[in-house]
Amino acid sequence: MKVKFVSAIMLVVMLLAGLGTSVAQAGAYAADFVTSITYQNVGTAAAQVTIQFYAEANGTPITITRPDLPPMAGTSIFVGSLGDLAPGFQGSAAISSSQPLVATLVQVPVPASGVKVRPLSNGFTSGSDYVLVPTALKATFDANTIVSVQNVDSDPADLEVVFVPVSGAPVTVTFEDLPAFATKYFDLGTMTELGSTFNGSVQIYATKAGTTDPGAVVASALELKIVQTGAYAFEGASEFGTMIYMPSALCQFNGVQTSSYAVQNTTAASVDVTVTYSSGEIATATLAAGAKQSFNACDVNDPGFIGSAQISATGDIVAMGKIFGGGLSTAFLGFNSGASKVALPYVRWTTDHWFDGTRQRAFIAIQNVGAPLAAGEVAVKYYDKNGTLVGTDTLDAIATGAKVNSNASTIGAAGAEFGYYTDGTFGGAAVVEGPAGSELAVIVRVQSRVGSLSVAEDYSGIAID
User: Distance from the CA of 398 to the CA of which of 85, 191, 214, 303 falls in 20 to 30 A?
Assistant: First the structure.
């Protein structure tokens, strides 16, 4: 997804709030979450920002005007603090701005839930009449998935949602007349149409209501553990390709952390898929039309492996990565291309408050999916809440397919408590910049300390060139 530099951009985001019915149970699926929308002005002038909130399947907005945001500044709005929204609100939002924005949504669990991880997903600037969710679960792997579909067209939309199991016949569910900018939620845990369990993927088709004309929707998924407290979120995909890049790949790294990729065939015919890890190891599979296949890095890599991967196929695919083990519960959508300039609206770092668990650390993984880059050609620029550049991390050489890492500690004292301020406010962002024509794919892992373990979630960097 690339943000277009236009004078008045509409940034459409997914919003999840007030999910669940109880905060007394241990499982994440029973927990309540409240959304914090973190956004960054990536334009050249102060941004005038308005947010319109839409309750589920409701086309009447609740409008809130936000303070102007300086260029390159990052800020956030905690939905739970808005008196205009009733407790238990569940829906979507659209952000209007005089400058281009990027946004990452943070799903904050209520403290009593026992859930510590904060699921992350990105906003969108446009939609498609065909969107895929690479993995969706019901009572499988101790998880239920909640898929949210937002109509980003100016006309109402009719939805056809196809749940494609790993084996067996697809199940189709329809929903008509979804208002403009409103969202419909599909909670697999309560869907009787899927039987007692489901393991597969989702295809979403949208038309303008009452017609066969293409509509425009976006989708996000929130995957929640039923008994355990793991949770993660990721975006639906509307851009497909025969090559997908994965900036994070692990096999029992630090003895516990492992990656798994869910790869979905987007075509109407079988495709052959090859996963090539930066270690040189390879895994292969053949996927039927619309089907998914999971690839665990430890199936072919030795324990201790850390690196990246490329996924190639004989037809178009989409892929999602998960990292698990040692308290981690993360998810991210793979990249079918890179960009020379990538925005990261949610970046934090703490030195003094890491072990007490009150502040977070963001680890940035940068994969070069283009031509080799020499030392000094790629830099990570760190901006405070006012848009002031407080430090730059200039990176070493990056070979094709290789990855490097960055975090705010690399910029010295200015990064010691990056994104945190003595007045109790928050806000920090970064931009990864390479030379014109370079292709960079970026993943941010936002990590929190919980006792002797860490919890974390990933989000994808957003291309802005």
Answer: 303
d(CA 36, CA 15): 9
Residues facing 55 on adjacent strands: 91
Range of the domain at 408: 337-465
**Mean pLDDT of residues grouped by 10 in the chain (465 residues)?**
37 52 65 92 94 93 95 93 88 92 92 90 92 94 95 96 92 97 95 96 96 96 93 92 94 93 92 96 94 94 95 96 87 93 97 94 95 98 97 97 95 96 94 97 94 89 89
Asked, for residue 4, whether it belongs to a domain, the answer is no
Tell me if 295 sits within 8 A of 275, measured CB to CB: yes
Counted residue by residue, the chain has a size of 465
222 and 281, same domain (yes or no): no
Angle at 126 between CA 176 and CA 54, to 5 degrees: 50
CATH number for position 165: 2.60.290.11
Whole-model pTM over 0.85: yes
Selection from 333, 318, 128 nearest residue 216 by Cα: 128
Task: Identify the burial level of 187 via C-beta atoms within 10 angstroms of its C-beta, where 0-12 means exposed, 13-18 middle and 19 or more buried.
Answer: middle
